[in-house]
Amino acid sequence: MKEDHVNLVIHGHEPILSEVIVQVANTQEMIDYAKEKGARGIQLSGICCTANELLQRHGVPLCGTFLQQELAIITGACDAMVVDIQCIMQNVANVANCFHTKLITTHPIAKMEQENVIHIEFDEHHAVEDATKIVKMAIDNFANRSSEVMIPRQKAPLVAGFGVESVKYHLGGSFRGDYYTLNDNIINGRIRGIGGVVGCNNARTRHNEGHVEIVKELIKNDVIVLTTGCNAIACAMAGLLTPESAAVYCGDGLAEVCETVGIPPVLHVGSCVDNSRILLAATEVVKAGGLGNDISDLPVAGSAPEWMSEKAISIGHYFVVSGVYTVFGVTFPTAGAPVFQRYLFKGLEELYGGMWDFESDPIKHAWKMINHIDKKRAALGIDKARERVLMDFAARQALEA
Q1: Consecutive H or E run containing 81
Q2: Which stretches within 111-163 are classed as H helix?
Q3: 182, 47: one domain
Q4: How far is CA 117 from the centre of its chain?
Q5: Are residues 14 and 100 in the same domain?
Q6: What number of other Cβ atoms are within 10 A of residue 289's Cβ?
């Protein structure tokens, strides 16, 4: 957010309208209109998964996590906040009413009853007109700021935009890109395994604590991390999404790989609705060879340290039945049903190769993942260092014989 700009915050999970808002806000017509109203330009920023979508595709900066949506308003600099569905706090309307902020809902299932809320239902057939109306409303509201603007000065650089294809490119360029480079470093032990750490923030625990502590413990023990959603934002705030962070937080093996390839130890792969990218990456690892024949054979583990919504359960179960050991934090919905929970934590592994687990303590949570990764390494026979042997032609002939 910028004090001398029109600040338009986009919050939610459906990126279609947001894409059009980015397009409209960057037109010269809208920029000139903002300058006519006394601003130096238009600053877009995002909260929750729309933030991650726009960051990946357009470089729109992150504003905050799920639990920080009210804080964006109380800066006094938020001229408009556009919301769609999921993770929208009902109370943002009451907070916005204490400031000049225009709160705009855009989806019929997420309308709010408060009188100060404006509803502009998004229609894809009139997308540009709707987006133009929203951007102009934010610009017109710039002159109505009545309270002192207090934007926190803390900022953190980050590298985002990783996907299945771009990871392959980073591992070998346009012509030699292949996941075998990753597999080779897992086999030789520089990388211990892969962790997928994702999910929301939970108001029942200290903000971002579980996210950051688990990820730091994993990379300290040479586990490369793929992240999405609010976990990705938390890692960015902690400075973990830059290549330079590897030298500070990683074990020697992972740090060496990150320095060589030029990537962060924590790879931002999108929003929570992009979690399938992690499974696609796992599939590429299997296809590259050397680490088993199924996702359940891989030294990988999943985690949602601060999950809080029903969608987390459905996404987590998708990972479990795909063969991934998946740990949740804070609380677990089957704690009062020990027989059923035992089936989830043990029985599912026999059927699918993956299973659920729970641990609220962040360090113990991380070590459950690491221990599972070590178990899979042992099953693959790559748990012990092997001496590298330089072979001459005669030795190669002996192997072929």
Answers
A1: strand 80-83
A2: 127-140
A3: no
A4: 29
A5: yes
A6: 11
Pair of tokens at residue 77: 């600099």
Q: List 301's β-bridge partners, or say none.
A: 195
Residues 236 and 337 in one domain: yes
Q: How far apart are CA 207 and CA 387, in angstroms?
A: 45
Confidence at residue 401, expressed as pLDDT on a 0 to 100 scale:
62
At residue 388, the pLDDT reads: 66
Quick: pLDDT tens for 316-349.
Answer: 999 999 999 999 999 999 999 999 999 999 999 9
Give a yes or no: residue 260 inside a domain: yes
Tokens of 185: 């470093």
For residue 372, give the nearest of 254, 213, 250, 223 by alpha carbon: 223
CATH number for the domain harbouring residue 132 = 3.40.50.2030
Please indicate, yes or no, whether residues 92 and 213 belong to a single structural domain of this protein: no
In whole angstroms, give the CA distance from residue 54 to residue 19.
7
Tell me how far apart the alpha carbons of residues 322 and 314 are, in angstroms, rounded to a whole number.
12
- Reported residue count of the chain is 401
Q: Which residues fall within 8 angstroms of residue 351, CB to CB, at 6 or more apart?
A: none
What pLDDT is attached to residue 342? Answer: 95
SS3 197: strand
Residue 279 shares a structural domain with residue 136? no
What token pair was written down for 247? Answer: 């030298």
Cα 328 from Cα 323, distance rounded (Å): 16
Residue 320 lies in a domain: yes
* Residues of the domain holding 74: 6-144
Q: Select from 200, 204, 214, 268 the least CA-distant residue to 48.
A: 200
CA 283 to chain centre: 19
Q: What are phi and psi of 359, to 5 degrees?
A: -160, 125
Residues of the chain scoring pLDDT < 70: 385-388, 401
Asked if 295 contacts 286 with a C-beta cutoff of 8 angstroms, the reply is: yes
Is the Cβ–Cβ distance between 161 and 54 less than 8 Å? no
